[in-house]
Design goal:
One of its GO terms (biological process) is carbohydrate derivative biosynthetic process. With 372 residues, the chain is an alpha/beta fold. The protein has 14 helices and 16 strands.
Length: 372
């Protein structure tokens, strides 16, 4: 099957959309399919032998390192030349909208993957346009042949916007990379002052939409040391307000997996996550999770069993919840074991096979019936 993946973000960007596209493209090749990636911004024109067509972009205001794609005639030419069976729209907003129009003109079925709460994203940067952005997102997904959502929260959100033919499709996790065996006791001892402190960590982009400034609320919990892994526009603010924290910078591969597994508690404070891949990676790493009781984490964390959820509307709930995890080593151990067991059937090969066999083939069959 020839699959054109039109995405709002791809390498060298490191974020949930780019990483998901990378994994999907890799697995498509391994399962005998031919993908093409169409993405904004500068970067490689091939990835592991997979062709990548680049379209125009501008830097996102307030986050110049993030390229925002622009409509580009190169996109439709690339799709026409490639001749896809299916167009996969990864978190469609601007480039995805152009990809949707091109696919419809070419008569190619589309599968749209909802991944970014764009209204919530914009709100964190001071842009108050929730109604307009939700209307735009709803309009795009109503025109796609099928929409895949990562969580029940996202399902309800798009259903309220009148989007039909919604299907739950979660992300995979690289169990060969994220695993408790990656824990580095020497690293842990160094950061925790020879085990005197519990390592409480955040892993991800240091950006406003992740609400990382809330980490300041837990920086003073006795007997803990905060570890921050990642880079982004909020790095300087965090550096000023978390003087005792250890900043690892952006990590990847085995270095990232080791940083995850060497934590004692993983914290994600954001409330706008449609899924929250880092929660799943922490669980695969055998690290207990504390996350906001909002969005994607509600599907990933069973409170008290596979992690803890805090009330984001209660200004003291994050502190209380992290403190409860820090003070109870047995609770941490039980939650880590239960969460690790729960993610064992969420590998990328399984997830992408489901994408192809259950979703790509469904829209192809629908198109054939319509033509007949």
């Amino acid at each position: 099957m020839r699959v054109a993946i039109v995405t709002e973000s791809f390498l060298p960007q490191v974020n949930g959309v780019a990483n998901s596209v990378r994994h999907v493209a890799e697995q498509l090749v391994r399962q005998g399919h031919q993908p093409l990636v169409v993405a904004p911004g500068h970067g490689p024109d091939h990835y592991l032998g997979i062709p990548v067509t680049r379209v125009r972009s501008v830097g996102l205001p307030g986050y110049r390192a993030f390229p925002l794609g622009l409509p580009d005639a190169a996109l439709e030419r690339a799709l026409a030349d490639f001749g896809p069976d299916v167009v996969h729209l990864a978190s469609p907003i601007v480039v995805g909208a152009a990809g949707l129009r091109a696919a419809r003109r070419l008569g190619v079925p589309t599968v749209a993957v909802y991944q970014t709460d764009i209204a919530g994203f914009a709100r964190q940067y001071g842009v108050r346009a929730e109604v307009l952005l939700d209307r735009w997102v709803g309009r795009l997904h109503r025109k796609a042949d099928r929409t895949l959502v990562p969580s029940h929260s996202s399902y309800r959100q798009l259903a309220a916007l009148g989007v039909p033919d919604l299907h739950l499709w979660r992300r995979g996790v690289s169990l060969d990379l994220f695993d408790p065996s990656r824990r580095d006791q020497e690293r842990h001892a160094t950061l925790s002052h020879d085990g005197r402190d519990v390592l409480v960590g955040y892993v991800g982009r240091l950006a406003a939409e992740k609400q990382v400034r809330r980490l300041a609320e837990i920086a003073g919990i006795p007997g803990t040391r905060l570890v921050v892994v990642g880079e982004g526009p909020e790095r300087s603010w965090l550096g000023r307000h978390l003087p005792g924290a250890h900043f690892s910078g952006q990590l990847g591969g085995t270095h990232l997996a080791t940083a995850f597994a060497s934590l004692d508690v993983f914290v994600h404070p954001g409330t706008s996550e449609t899924f929250c891949q880092t929660v799943q990676e922490a669980q695969a790493s055998g690290v207990p999770v504390v996350a906001a009781a909002a969005g994607g984490p509600l599907d990933l964390v069973e409170h008290g069993r596979t992690g803890l959820l805090f009330d984001p509307e209660d200004r003291f709930s994050l502190w209380r919840t992290v403190t409860a995890a820090v003070r109870d080593a047995d609770l941490r151990s039980r939650m880590a074991a239960a969460a690790h067991a729960k993610v064992q059937d969420r590998t990328w090969p399984i997830v992408v096979e489901d994408l192809v066999e259950r979703h790509y083939r469904a829209v192809l069959d629908q198109r054939r019936l319509a033509i007949a």
